[in-house]
Amino acid sequence: MLSQSSDTVVVVIVNFRTPALTIDCLRSLATEREAGAPIQANVVEGGSGDDSAEILSRAIEDNGWARWVKLIVSPRNGGFAYANNLGISAAFNRGPKPNAIWLLNSDTYILPGALKPLQAILEQYPDAGIVGSRLVYPDGRPQHSAFRFPTLRGELLDGARSTIISCLMRRSSALPISEELVGAEWIAGASMLIRPEVFSSIGYLDDNYFMYFEETDFCRRALNANWKTMYEPQSRVVHLVGQSSGVTGEQETKKRRPTYWFESRHRYFLTHFGAVSTLLADLCWLFWRACWHFRQCFRREKRAHGTPHLWKDFLRHSVLFKGFSMPAFSGNKDAINERALIIEAMATNANEKTQIQAAATS
Q1: Within a 13 Å sphere around the CA of 326, how many CA atoms are in the beta-carbon half?
Q2: Domain boundaries, the chain
Q3: Residue 63 in 3-state DSSP?
Q4: Of 48, 177, 314, 332, which shows the fewest CB atoms inside 10 Å?
Q5: Which CATH class is domain 9-142+177-243?
Q6: Is the entire prediction scored with pTM above 0.85?
């Protein structure tokens, strides 16, 4: 990392087959820049295998965003954490060190003034390493954005799907939606402002999470390094839930949960709880979800069973079948070298453009 610093906030957006949404997100950032926000953006095309890179490149040129938006094309689809790390690494290796890194999902667009409250928290609280926005639906309804870490109790509640048990245990994985600044254990990665020193302390996102649980893991590692995570509801970001993945939100009850979700959960529990607690968590979820299915047989009004084949898929990916080996996305073994090569290529292209511009003006 460079020692020299600036006031610039570098926004990292990962595109995966959502170029129209990514452009909308950039358009909202352009409005914020016009209001004086010191924003630069690294858009990472995450190996979509379509014409996303061409669409994004053309939009950047046509809208005059080239001065502040850099397009980084991933050599492959290495997952969400991998792609974010490409953008983060580029932010730290090109020009002065940024004041903060702002991770935004491609299926978000910021509302006016969204950045300033987040910056204010990092300035006011020296031990705050991560701060998240209030995520809202397009009609303004708030979404749950701040959470407690996954625990054995949380697996029980998720498996049981029982309001009575939730009330008796007086605990939910999602924190109550607050109108004031609150501390959180982890926040949704759809809008997450991060102090640069956090990366110095704990490194980047874990590339071995292909998708999901990477922000939970990052916040837990930050907490272990004495960095707090906070939720600032004065910062508002519209989140079109699940549009960038199709797994959460309204699509969750229509699509089968992908293998990488289970692998990410498996990795998270083994990393932070160990083998015995992971086994207990799996057994707890499986038992209580089976109880829920049993109760459904006696209901007069049947409830929707939610995600298709979830119990069977959960069992198949539990430690009972997968064992205690640590899941890792094998395609990311050379991630560090790939980031270095991409940054070197970007620097070469930038130098070539500078030389061409100099020749044109001489």
Answers
A1: 10
A2: 9-142+177-243, 259-322
A3: coil
A4: 177
A5: alpha beta
A6: yes
